[in-house]
UniProtKB/TrEMBL annotation, chain A:
One term of GO molecular function: DNA binding
Cited PANTHER family: TATA-BOX BINDING PROTEIN
Name this polypeptide is given: TATA-box-binding protein
Name of the coding gene: tbp
Matches recorded under HAMAP family: TATA_bind_prot_arch (MF_00408)
Role: General factor that plays a role in the activation of archaeal genes transcribed by RNA polymerase. Binds specifically to the TATA box promoter element which lies close to the position of transcription initiation.
CDD domains (UniProt xref): TBP_archaea
Family: Belongs to the TBP family.
PROSITE patterns: TFIID
Lineage: Archaea, Methanobacteriati, Methanobacteriota, Thermococci, Thermococcales
Pfam families, per the entry: TBP
GO biological-process terms attached to the record: DNA-templated transcription initiation
Alphabetical UniProt keywords: DNA-binding, Repeat, Transcription, Transcription regulation
Start and stop residues of the Sequence repeats: 11-87, 102-178
SUPFAM superfamilies linked to this entry: TATA-box binding protein-like
Length: 191, 210
DNA sequence: GCTTTAAAAAGTAAAAT
DNA sequence: ATTTTACTTTAAAAAGC
């Protein structure tokens, strides 16, 4: 059994796509978004930031959104509700309730022990390690689909998961592989 | 019927033209870097394999060729930095790095096959710095001890080798400046200084006052 | 493929002091 | 020479080039 007792995961960012089911006139939307940026030449959506909840929204004329920077699904729901209220204020009509899809969750975490990444890279199948270009080992988990960056400190970053449960499952699979190849015991000597 | 035939001819024409361009690009790079023939042949083999597996899609021929050269150097243990290659390739380093990791993943070039011993970099940099065998041995001892002490994981191999050579040059009385060592290793002086500080501190090395 | 957005890890680079 | 700021890697969506 894989010992996950020392493993920690902390949510750092959630990305969601949203459909408001309404057409938007971006020029009018600009008025209700204080700190926003809109340059259709470089990007087709309005870039808008909320302080509470602290998120960034990309607003498109199709009525679809991308919400990023959230630390919880509730943050996203609150941000969408907040935007919907503002839009109602300028007369936008919605055909139905907004649909929110969590697309990506990013976690930072800790496995609780240090690693010799050269050993990991030489032993763990299907991983990448190019210290000249990036200090961490890149490990791709097929199911659930996620990518884990493993650093020598034992700290990790897990991205691509669509739920917290998936992220934990992906990390569990990495640990199972590390154990399978004897990379979890070799009590790295001294210090 | 004739149309299909012509389109096939056109396709193979384009494929041939692309291959010819890729191989001329490869020739230009290997000639300028004075790389041995077997490296050029290996790079060409990797490139054909990449084309066969359709790995070029969405990537420029230049970046893939440069990536193949770098991969061939790593496979054949001919130490060369990615910077040296990106200097003459007309693609930015970041793009070459991406193509390199992509073909490595898809051609089963594992970290093990691509691993180049720090010793090989020590000799390459020492050659360019005109350092003696004694300094090289000393640098390698420092690197081995650093590895045992877990001071190398995640760090730039070039930066570590540069710092080890800098320290060894001081210890053996053949001093080279941080600037000179940084230049051949293609890292900044700040990186050499950071690695130098950590190695001297954690390995308890007493360097002569300069 | 690219463009834009957010966030962490740890390392290196570039720029500022 | 040291500090600050910025960029490298991972993931994913949006509309359009």
């Amino acid at each position: 059994m894989v010992d996950m007792s020392k493993v920690k995961l902390r949510i750092e960012n959630i990305v969601a796509s949203v459909d408001l089911f309404a057409q938007l006139d971006l020029e009018k939307v600009l008025d209700i978004c204080p700190n926003s940026k809109y340059n259709p030449e470089e990007f087709p959506g309005i870039i808008c930031r909320f302080d509470d909840p602290k998120v960034a929204l990309l607003i498109f004329s199709s009525g679809k959104l991308v919400v990023t920077g959230a630390k919880s699904v509730q943050d996203i729901e609150r941000a969408v509700a907040k935007l919907v209220q503002k839009l109602k204020g300028i007369g936008v009509k919605f055909k139905r309730a907004p649909q929110i899809d969590i697309q990506n969750m990013v976690f930072s975490g800790d496995i609780g022990r240090e690693f010799n990444l050269d050993n990991v890279a030489l032993t763990l199948p299907n991983c990448e390690y190019e210290p000249e270009q990036f200090p961490g080992v890149i490990y791709r988990v097929k199911e659930p689909r996620a990518v884990i960056l493993l650093f020598s400190s034992g700290k990790i970053v897990c991205s691509g998961a669509k739920s917290e449960a998936d992220a934990w499952e992906a990390v569990r699979k990495l640990l199972r592989e590390l154990e399978k190849y004897g990379l979890m015991e070799e009590e790295e000597e001294e210090l | 019927r004739l149309r299909k035939w012509q389109s096939r001819l056109r396709v193979s024409d384009a494929a041939e033209r692309n291959l010819a361009f890729a191989l001329s690009e490869l020739d230009r790079i290997t000639a300028q870097l004075k790389l041995p023939k077997h490296v050029e042949e290996e790079a060409a083999r990797l490139y054909r394999e990449a084309v066969r597996k359709g790995l070029i899609r969405g990537r420029s021929i230049e970046s893939v060729i440069a990536a193949c050269v770098y991969a061939a150097c790593r496979l054949l243990k001919v130490p060369r930095t990615l910077d040296e290659i990106s200097d003459i390739a007309r693609v930015e380093k970041k793009e070459i790095g991406r193509s390199y990791r992509f073909i490595a993943r898809n051609l089963n070039l594992t970290p093990k096959k691509l691993f180049v011993k720090p010793t090989d970099y020590v000799n390459k940099f020492a050659d360019e710095l005109g350092l003696s065998e004694k300094v090289r041995r000393r640098a390698i001892e420092i690197l081995e001890e650093a590895y045992r002490r877990g001071l190398t994981s995640g760090k730039s191999p070039a930066g570590l080798v540069a710092a080890a050579l800098y320290i060894a040059s001081l210890l053996e009385g053949e001093k080279r400046t941080q600037r000179e060592v940084a230049e051949v290793a293609r890292v900044t002086e700040v990186t050499v200084r950071n690695r130098y500080k950590e190695l001297v501190e954690k390995l308890g090395i007493k360097v002569p006052i300069t």
